[in-house]
## 1
Amino acid sequence: MAETLLNPQSDVIAEVRGRLGMITLNRAKALNALSLGMVRDLLAALLAWQNDDKVMAVAIRGMGKEGAFGAFCAGGDIRFLHAAGSTGNPQLEDFFTEEYTLNHLIHHYGKPYIAFMDGIVMGGGMGISQGGSLRIVTERTKMAMPETAIGLFPDVGGGYFLSRCPGHVGEWLALTGETIAAGDAVAFGLADGCIPSDQQAVLWETLATTDFANVQALDAVVRARFVEMPARNAARREEIDACFARPSVLEIEQSLRAGSDWAQTQADVLRKRSPLMLHVVLEQIRRARGMTLAEDLRMERDMVRHCFYLRPGQSETVEGIRALAVDKDHQPRWNPARIEDVQEAQWQAFFDSPWPAFAHPLRYLRH
């Protein structure tokens, strides 16, 4: 018997089936981009189930345009971020505080959390999956943290999980925002296994209808379906590590420019991103390597506040979203305009907390 916690017409459908709490992101027209309401619904469901002995584990999927699966989550609702950032809507602050709280809860949930990462998995979609104990990808998975393209940085714990990719893969993915497929996601530690997309529905129903003896039995049922998929970028590790280990954004770009055809293409990508945010992101990833998740999320909460309010009327994020999703002219007017023009003081300012420690909005997060 399914126990629905939320309206089936809701953007988040949460129900208990068998031993599992099952969540479907139900905003297919927007590729399940997260609104503040969706973040609150997800938090409410997860908190309700966290100490419920009837719920052994949680599974989450996205609704696609043709039905269940096909798209997981394209990120946060950037149109809302643009409007709120342009008008001073206080819900902008609530969105990031509550989204990062959700990300932290998932990482420390204490029960298996199974994420079906089919189709688009970007930005906020990574935030609600990377903390999972079973992160499942398919041949349709398109995974990225593409925030530098909109004058933002890989938030939702991106500093934490990207910095823990092997070698300097984290810098590569964070700076360029490049999209990777299933095999690379596993090779780089951003997924636990691949299954064919046409097997997801059967696995979902198996999870809902099986009376698992324990979490080990549940884990075994999922892992038994894993298959190998090619890791196309794994062979580029040596070049990625050599280039993205360089100490500055300019030196990374110059190193790429002197490399293979693939590396030169990556250099071209960097030249299209926000020069200021490239400097911010490089520092973010390198600081985060020595941080707990809670410390990283507090740092990112500081950073995202600065993205909208450090330079009134000159937000790189508002401008980047304008160019990509509002006016769609794809001609962002970055300030500064070139990597070479960014001053150290400009990017360092993003790491000054606007709050004393006792008043930080995420002060209660532990480890």
## 2
Amino acid sequence: MAFPPRQDATATYSPETVRAAYPALSDGHAYLDGAAGTQTPRPVIDAVVGAYEAGLSNVGGTFPASHRADEIVAACRAAVADLVGGVPHGVILGANMTTLTYRLARVLTGPGDEVVVSRLDHDANVRPWTQTGARVRWAEVDPVTGELPVDQFAELVGPRTRLVAVSAASNILGTRPDVAAICEIAHAAGALTYVDGVHATAHGPVDVHALGADFYATSAYKWSGPHVGAVIADPVALESLHPDKLLPSPGTVPERFELGTAALADLAGVTAAVDHLAGLVPGSGTRRERLLASMAAAEEHELGLFAEMLAGLETMPHVTLYGKPARRTATAYFTVAGLAPRRVAEHLAARGVNVWSGHNYAWELTGALGVRDSGGAVRAGLVHYNDRSDVKRLLEGVAELRSSPPARP
């Protein structure tokens, strides 16, 4: 599927209008911590509150409060499907990506299988696969560029490969590997692909079919929604899988993959978050079409600001930046000479700049970069509601660390 021309989409992108929808931004802080979870816009807050105020009961009943729950679940599946280009009956909902991935790993792989995992990935797309008893083969990262070379997968994937797990974007370096090429290699060998889209989904248009993902995982709290996870797959493929479940619980797809009662009001918030993203720029057409245009505009906005952030950090001799991938999200990972990453984060927090420090669950990648055992690094990431003032404040705060150690906040 072709995405809309970005130059047209960005013509109407208004950071001021976008920011006005987020009550939390009124506290004056520069929220550069979006890679760990975004802030929540007013429509999402209102949707969650409204669901509770209207009255909710469990699904499948004969009365209005239960009917509302049924409608909320159906609307949430449809919204997530529109966001990534899937179909509603292939959307599995759960507490978070980690929980869902562990559940699916037990169904998809086991002793006697081979799995290919990547050192680029967040540990949630590594450990569930390495703990199934399957034989593990590792795709390595170039520690200088932060790239995940595609050619190695031709050697790693073989006739016994059951599944290839790979990230659509690194949560610390922003690296966007060539997922479509990796999935093509996997499919040629008869293997399945499980793509971690948790970081990628917030930063541009997604088309699961173009990627070649048999399973695509995402988390709504990374794109302005509540703490809800989802895995999107072809319903036909799900029909062949039979996870352990309670005997009375539904045996239908996708419900049989969902344990327990969902956080129903939060699901209403997920739908509102998708609708919010679809309206980042004015437009018409289906929600899917509006999402493609809005997310392309958001990506252009983020990368424009990110170019300024990188240029500023690169001029500072006391800063070391990690990774220089050709395609990336607006995510920077860096250290400051003579200071532990936590101290840098504390210094910036005292100046109203929110960043993270440490390994950020990129356990294998921070090991490959050689920073995991020394406290990791500092992560500053941009999302669609950040603006130039956020970048300016980060650069000013880091520049202050050139000459002397910061005072304790």
